[in-house]
Amino acid sequence: MITHPHFGPWDYVILSIVLLISASIGVYYRLTGGKQKTMQEYLLADKNMPIGPVAFSLMASFMSAITLLGVSSENYTYGLQFIVINISYVLATPIAAYLFLPVFFKLQATSAYEYLERRFGKTSRLAASLSYTLQMTLYMGVVLYAPSLALEALTGISQLAAILSVGLVCTFYSTIGGMKAVLMTDVFQSILMFIAVFSVIICAVVEKGSFAEVWRIASEGNRTNLLNFDPDPTVRHTWFTLIIGGAVTYLSLYAVNQTQVQRYLTVKDLKAAQKALWWNWPILTLLSLSTSFSGLAIYSRFYKCDPYDAGYITSFDQLMPYYVVDTMGHIPGLSGLFVAGIFSASLSTVSAAVNSLAAITIEDYLKPLYRAVFKTHLPESRESMITKITSLAYGFVCLAVAFMAKYLGNVLQASLTIFGVIGGPLLGLFSLGMFTTTANEEGAVFGLTTGIVLSLWMAFGKHPPPDTLPRTTQGCDILNRAYSNHSTHLHSEDQSDYFWLYRVSYLYNGVLGLVSTVLVGYIASILIDKCLRRQKRIYDPNLFVPPLEKWMRKKLLEKQGNLNMTESSGSSDDLKNGLRTIRQY
User: Fold this and answer.
1) Per the domain annotation, does 433 fall within a domain?
2) Range of the domain at 460
3) Shared domain check, 329 and 224
4) pLDDT in the model for residue 299
5) How many CB atoms lie within 10 A of CB 139?
6) How far apart, in whole angstroms, are the C-alpha atoms of residue 247 and residue 89?
7) Are the C-beta atoms of residues 127 and 422 closer than 8 Å to each other?
8) Domain for residue 187, yes or no?
9) What is the distance between the alpha carbons of residues 502 and 351, in angstroms, rounded to a whole number?
10) Can you give the CATH number for the domain in which 85 is found?
11) Per-residue pLDDT, 562
12) 17 occurs within a structural domain
């Protein structure tokens, strides 16, 4: 077992080539086609992208280096229980595809939050946009921080240099290449992510002789338990927390998140977008399952000498890169290929977020402000350049946040916490709009505020350290065992000393945010309407999920009485006006 990083010349060459290819894709799309002169081409790829690249991009947008490093270390440290979250993906995919997605496709707006202005008003749109901006800025900081851990473990290069190298390349190609460059680099980078994970699994199987032997070692180390059905919400990972919390997290990302909605709109029609989402599911699941098994593969190597307790690494998130250099460092270029996969995972996620944040800034902040000040629309000739400058600015903001990400702890839990505290309430806000005709703007915004406050309170209180599975340094060499304080590590701190809400599983952050937003928003809307004695509004049915839309159209037809041919198609004056407004926006 090595005690120091080793990263040879060929490793640096391969890593440099990968970063150069990603940057070159951006240059290529800057110099071809329409040269990104229009907003539709820059932000929506002219709405003519094939399903395949979009499906890979949907996966790569959030399956970042956090997934590769965090999920593998999760299964190494806490066991295989986390793979149950994949059940939530298959349960939530049809909800996103057939309830939420049709609404956004009818709207055909660059900003997903334009829906909220149509359904509620400008205040709700601004509140949601600001929440999304905060969420993605924090998340991108964690995403940029993750590969710096890998490079530090493998090469000894400082986190500063690693963060700057990833952040600058990513900012460059996403700024000049637009959405087409982002989508195509996502495909290239997704392939590298799979290569990185499978290289770990194959190496372990070759070393141990079979999958069965890897599983046997993990089983003896109590890493293969999958049957935790404890309904106690304070238990970190159970079937309940992973399926319920995982489904809410998935929907907050794949149903209403601007980053994903913008990708759906790059294909030609709704059916193509739904196919892309369904194809994303097996790709996402394959990466999740293989990364989980890679954690067991790493354990089969270090089960007698834990590298963290022995002092070889400074964070559990460095386990996978340390494993690579320990087992494959003697093969020229292989460590570089692995780090390229880690870097690619971060590049794909950050580029997606930078592009989407630029879209939100232009559509939700700049355009309304420009109309308010100059009483006219922002000239199209200026939009593309301003958007690129905005993308560049967000790239630098994310670099700054990355240097603070180390204070957030475990990268996987930190990322899911960020998604939960903001994503859950935002999902609740959209749900209030799409699933009920009762909610109004005042109630919805109050519900969103309540949900975010409660989620933040729950997420950032003083939490007890989670119990980890046993680890040992008994198999380490004598020198390193001397530096280890003990051979096994288990947290046995009395959790009853902590406030109950702080002991609840972090996966319930989003659930609390969703439920509180919906309940508070719905009740507040009813009370406000009663106090102000408002009459019931007539809404455009296209603003609601398909089942409710059909019911509303039926009610409109019943009220019209004598129907002519136009009315029999589901139109009324109110409906026509609503549809015309959406088309003209």
Assistant:
1) yes
2) 29-534
3) yes
4) 95
5) 26
6) 6
7) no
8) yes
9) 34
10) 1.20.1730.10
11) 45
12) no
